[in-house]
Amino acid sequence: MFPNRVASLQFSGIRKLFEAAPPGAINLGLGEPDMQPPKEMIEAFKDALDRGMNKYGPSAGIPELRKAIAENLKSYRRDVLVENIIITAGATEGMRIACDTILGKGDEALIPNPGFIIYGPDVTLAGGTPVEYSLSQENSFWPDPDEIQELVTPNTKAIVINSPSNPTGAVFPEHVVKAICDIASDRDLYILSDEVYHSFVYEGKHVSFARFHDDTIIVNSFSKSLATTGWRIGYVATSKEIVEQLAKVQYYTLACPPTATQHAVLAGMKIRKRFRESMLSEFRTRRDLMMRKLSEIPSFRTPPVDGAFYVFPRYSQETSSDEFAQRLLKAGVICAPGSAFGTRGEGHLRFSYANSQENIERGLEIVSEVAETL
Ligand SMILES: Cc1ncc(COP(=O)(O)O)c(C=O)c1O
């Protein structure tokens, strides 16, 4: 028999749905940019392979990339150095080793509901207990500091937080970020901040928790910002002491992050501003199109979204989100049921606008037709 912490893990509900999609279905479920990475990065990747970068590298990642990331993060905090950065195999591995490093048996970590699917399993696999805090449409999908305060017990070790957020598209404003940081400082908690969508902010600005709380562990990645989800390169930025512990855990998990890929990402960092601007402008247009189309569906309530590339409308039909998503799938549109992101996601659907304007337009026509029949 397998231990419960493993046996109790579920495959993602989203994956199952994608696999059942009919050929030609319009995919409004994608969790990755639909564009390719900049050609300079692909050239740099090939070049790194030709130059023999095919061997193990340092467990914490190549110093050049760590340094480039540290320089970049100086806009959050002036004191960031190479020693504060560890390169990981995407945010997925970053979050996993961060939980393994800071949580032990009996420790509680607060996680969002609805929230990205990895947090609960990561806490559980580390031997800890996930405790959910709620995000609701009434509260703009921002965390409620009073609720967080009430959920903190003597066993709480960390607050896991994600802004810009998957699945809701919310970007937490500075006063919310500060309020959460105040609680974390008062109660001596880590903030585990998943910032993978930091470069997808359409209104306002991204505020990092690291600005207001020293014990913040930023988990980030190049998957979305440089459209390299398959390359598996991300990073964790935090104190030197935590990075040293993370490097040990990473050594026993991964040995080291892939060498040639890190060189390619380093090349990407030099041109990321240009890439980001063009991607952001395209995604903003798509967001506006999606919001307009969704507002034409009377049974949907879709408040404005400021970041990431998702919208998370609530619908009024008496149908489970799983059933709704299945009906859409049969009609030729893939989306994610809200329940895949936690109990509080029920009654919502997540649509991604990481698809062409034409597909968004056609896809939402179908959604509108199906919604009318339910
Ligand atoms: C909020 C969030 N965090 C982390 C990840 C994982 O990113 P990575 O490809 O860097 O592992 C995703 C991917 O969809 C995500 O949406």
Q: CATH superfamily of the largest domain, please?
A: Type I PLP-dependent aspartate aminotransferase-like (Major domain)
Indicate the overall shape. Answer: globular
**N-to-C order of helices and strands:** HHEHHEHEHEHEHEEEHHEEEHEEEH
Total tally of structural domains:
2
Q: Architecture of the largest domain, according to CATH?
A: 3-Layer(aba) Sandwich
> Strand share of the residues?
5-15%
- Which CATH C-level class of the largest domain is it? Alpha Beta
Low-confidence blocks of residues: none
Q: Distance between termini?
A: 43 Å
CATH topology of the largest domain: Aspartate Aminotransferase, domain 2
Topology:
Blueprint: H1 4-7, H2 13-19, E1 26-27, H3 39-50, H4 63-73, E2 85-88, H5 90-102, E3 108-113, H6 119-125, E4 129-134, H7 145-151, E5 156-162, H8 174-186, E6 190-194, E7 216-221, E8 234-237, H9 240-254, H10 259-295, E9 300-301, E10 310-311, E11 314-315, H11 321-331, E12 333-334, E13 336-337, E14 349-352, H12 357-373
Parallel strand pairs: 1-12, 3-4, 3-5, 5-6, 6-7
Antiparallel strand pairs: 2-8, 7-8, 9-11, 10-14, 13-14
Helix pairs in contact: 3-10, 4-10, 5-6, 5-9, 10-12, 11-12
The structure holds pyridoxal-5'-phosphate (PLP).
Pyridoxal-5'-phosphate (PLP) binds at residues 31, 90-92, 116, 162, 166, 194, 196, 221, 223, 229, 234.
